[in-house]
Amino acid sequence: MSEHFTRVEIVFYPEHLNHWLRFGAPDAQQDLDRRRSLALFRPGQVFGYVRWRANEFGTQEWRFTIVRAAEPSLLLSRIPGVCPGGEVLLLVTGNTKVKRALLQIDVLEADGFDPVDVSPAYYRHVHNRITAGQPVRAYSREQHAAYLAAKKVSA
Which InterPro entries does its entry note (predicted)? Predict the structure, then answer.
């Protein structure tokens, strides 16, 4: 197994800055101080990462990214707070779009799916539908079974 990790910045300064994992189980977490830490993911792991920043005028940045960690030697997308980068499965910015995407994660969990195990194609679908302002189709058990079977065959 690779010794390369994708490092994700976790930061919390109340009312100013909050970078956190919505889902995903890091292999390790390193505390830098009481407000900052690094979550470490092996290649192939999927995680949801939220970045929120505000100032005295309100929210200045809000983004939600679903990322698949990858080997540093592969072509990676640069993602703020994620080093060296990863494969972006979903990226939304702005209050309305982030809330819609987070709601979809809630729906997946309510339907019994672990967001880490959901098909990357479904996350791309969610990204495209939210970007276009269209309703998102539900993730079905049949879709999930087909994804898991394909994953097993390609392993």
Answer: DUF2840
CA distance 82 to 67: 9
Nearest to 67 by CA among 112, 6, 4, 125: 6
- In the chain, % helix, strand, coil (3-state, to 5) comes to 30, 40, 30
| C-alpha to C-alpha distances, 112 to 106, 124, 135, 139, nearest whole angstrom | 10, 20, 21, 11
Distance from C-alpha of 68 to C-alpha of 65, rounded to nearest angstrom:
10
Instruction: Decide: helix, strand or coil at residue 23.
Output: strand
pLDDT in tens, 69-104: 998 877 899 999 999 999 999 999 999 999 999 999
Domain ranges of the chain: 6-154
| pLDDT tens, residue by residue, 22-33 | 999 999 999 999
